[in-house]
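S.,

Sequence below, as promised.
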Amino acid sequence: MADAPQRTPKRVVSGMRPTGRLHLGHYHGAVKNWIEISRKAECFFFSADWHALTTDYKDPSGIREAQREMFTDWIAAGLDPERCTFFVQSQVKQHAELFLLLGMVAPIGWLERVPTFKEQQQELGEKELNNYGFLGYPVLQTADIALYGADAVPVGQDQVSHLELARELVRRFNHLYGRVLVEPHPYLTEVPKILGLDGRKMSKSYGNAVELGEDPEQARKRIMVAVTDPARKRRHDPGHPEICPIYHLHRAYSSPERVEMVDRECRSAGIGCVDCKKLLLESLLPALEKHRAARARLNPERVEELVQLGTAKARAVAEETMVKVRAAMQLS
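The prediction came back faster than expected:
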């Protein structure tokens, strides 16, 4: 039986931690899909600066500059601020208010069972993450979504379970106080696999990322020293492109014909890793140059103005929701 088609969302909300300039993983993992969704739904996209504090609370000094860079990259990448509402989470205090109220009804056991809770504690073992903010991250995430009455949240198939707690928490709230909040549904998006240059997840903290507007010479150097198939020790050894970061970048930036050729020639040892990287640069470098040129055309003051206008709009929409929430909980 075929899967039912996705319903077109009316309002979408999503956010990103401000880590500065975007890399290729950010673009293909989120922004590219946001651009597509923004053509058919009302969209709110925000800098999740409070979420950043759940793991980086010891040194928040770089957050403001990082989010300026991030918003600039969003626009340069193709997100239209005339179609989308950009805002800063911490400048909409209703996020904190709804976070507090949802926290009153969120069972501790639900939070401890969130898959990423223990995973990130292990992955980020060098940080002290036995704090309430980190445990309560999904509650704040639920507030982020519910404040805007979003009926859809763009996620990849592997992220659907992360949204389920938000759905359960909204249902619990509505059961206790009446149908006040909109239950969000996952809006499934295609997320191509983009590996970091060392084969792990692409992340600035790993030092394995390529920025969207990377300088061409720097990008060339980084690509040419990237790891490939570790089993391919000699030129005539056949490769396994499915585990190679360079191949996954080919799939994102090269033509289908070239991707097919790289796949075939890698497996038969008809092409070496150095040549494969050079072929990638032929398609990757022009894409990086296009983004860099788009960034250069943007006025930083205008970007800041657009974010402040968006934040004011977000604040007004969020307050409409909180008026209903306070009334339902008899807090008016």
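The CA atoms of residues 145 and 253 lie 32 Å apart.

Coffee later?
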